[in-house]
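PROTOCOL LOG
Step 1. Enter all chains and additional molecules of the complex.
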Amino acid sequence: MINNIEKTPNISPHLKTNKTSKNIMVDVIIALIPVFIGSIYFFGTRSILIVFSAVFTCVLSEYIWQKASKKQITINDYSAVVTGLLIAFNMPVQTSIWTIVIASIFSIIVTKQFFGGIGGNFANPALVGRAIIMLLWPAQVAKYVTTYHASVDAVSSATILSLLKNGNDFSQFTKWDMFIGNIPGAIGETSVILLVIGFLYLSYRKIVNPVVTGVYLLTVVLITFVFGPQGLFTGDYLTHLLSGGLMIAACYMITDYASFAPRIRVTLAVIAGILTAGIRLWGIYPEGACFAILITNCLAGLVDRIIKPHIYGMKLKRDKV
Amino acid sequence: MKRQLKSYFYGGIHPSDGTDKLLSNQTPIKYYVPKRIEISMMQSIGHVSKCIVDIGDRVTLGQLIGIPQEFGTANIHASVPGIILDIIKVDDEHDGVYDVVVIETDNNFDINELYHNKDYSKQLKDISSYSRETLISSMKDGGIIGMGGAGFPTHIKYETNKTIDTVLINAAECEPYLTCDHRIMLEFPFEIINGVNLMIKAANANKATICLEDNKADAAKKLQEILENSNLPIKVKLLATRYPQGGERQLIQAVIKKEIPIGKLPAELGVIVSNVATAKALADMTFNETPLITRCITITGFVNKPSNYMVPIGTLLNDLISESGGISIDGDNKIIHGGPMTGTCIASNSNGNGLIGGVLKISSGIVVLGDEEIIESPCIRCGRCERVCPAGLAPFKIDFAAIENDLSLCDKLYATECISCGACSYVCPARRELAWRITIAKNEIFNQRHKNGGK
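Step 2. Run joint prediction.
Step 3. Record the structure below.
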């Protein structure tokens, strides 16, 4: 534009943030490291095998798919690694490896790549992987055991939520056990403290929005407290908060970028909270977070249409007409 | 001074940590007179004035050399006394045909005499002898255009028939690296306040607010000290530093707390926004009879001596780069005209000698940056672009629509409301050139509307 300047590739702005997609995924992986270590501590070295097979299958299937369909190879952004980690963390330690492989392939190929790759998936890939296993091979993900550090030896045991659901006694597990993760469950979901540490790191790095997580947890706590087994306001909300997949869902699933559209995140978090608590209290499953978030993912399009964005200068225009 | 830091425009980013402005914001303005200048007849993008001088003519300082020939253009004056060596005809595929007047400067010309020891630079002037009409016509005669970047002729803005309540003086200078407005506020505070006072009169307004970001607190203090001993209806307002605070619509939202309706001008809300350098130009024209022939420009980034210069319009960019000690980066570089967020890249991998052209009335700075190859990766829908968009758009959706060439969808997503600030492209972790594609889509929509006879 200045006189007859030579034309150069001219795309403004000329400054860009140094935070890339890859940095974000690496930060998520860093945040999940304490959970990974915790899973080895509580459930033994088989956790490593589970995590490794899930991550390996995810990355490999993403690579093969993109190679076969001649698309840009995006395994370098580590998003498949994150999906793999989350699938693994949602499986109990006794799950057979072929189950995990199927869940991983399904997550990456069907949920992610069929819908256009990273960013295109309508639902959280890791949760879809888990849901498919829960529906097709329910026995595979029902083999829960007590941890290495329980007062008894590692024996098969029901999760706290199913004990709670069936009205059984679960007093052998203290609230402290639930907090640190010394309870039966999927390898990555039991330890509230380790999940929260990772989550705080992500919040500090401004990768996730803590408000969404807060709203989701608050909704679940409120509903489980109000609709208690002995009438209103008697619910054991603390057990609901500290056990099962609620924390991993709140920290890592609901904050997933693609499945929760940014503008409507908070509304979706409330819906997901109501559904989670609803399934736990009145559904046939003891655990509600997985299906609740998947249902909410499906509602995202509708909510997006109802809640209109505010465009600068729009409101005044509407007032005038 | 009461600090009011809350500003309420939507979105926005912090593209820098403030160190970029430190390169040059403590460097006093240097006066520089080049041996040879090249004044373009296109002083703002796409608006060409008509050249009225010939090769060999002798021009005096401030002599009219270009006159407006279409809406949106203004007078252009000789910024140095001297002899016209050449008139270059430029035929540019993007910007059209225009003349560039080359002048050789007289040896005895001293730019310092222009501004020094004038009474309006030491005291507040009584302006009761000026009427609105005389001020608007002196804006027109002086060739004063908005010096913030858009370059719209100031007199057209002030000729509005709407009732104006407030004149907002835009001194936000939210672009990283640029410090020219900061420096003129520190070094020409009386000129600016006199100019603002004239602007109130020219707009028939009640009051004016000079809006600065809080990284220019020293300038705000200086202006405030002058205003304290006067009874002028001028306020100084500090805003929290955030890009794009200096966007006209964003500034109004931050200060007046109202939004300009879509498709309307600020005058609709009784507001006129003018750049702080424009205020100084009006004071120069009114009290000193100097048309807009000089401006302050920042040369910064990877140069050896980042500085601010007061130079005649048309000063060669090459001269300014070598005056600043040359380019200091070894690797790939790009030279940007304007701020790094909205400016245009005028050369890449240059050694600082290959620049063609001179300073325009809208040139706020020349920034030399390192160049890196940007590889776009797929959108991960993190929503950062939507969060920072000051217009409230969903840039990633418009980006998808633009790639599919679906202009009607772009229109439905309000691509036309994009202000091209570049905040979305800045934050995008997938490094997508969102602002670039949206701006193309926006211009395409406007073209189509124009073709269809719409507005």
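Step 4. Note key features.
The beta strands of chain A are 227-228, 231-232.
Chain A touches chain B through 47 residues (CB under 8 Å).
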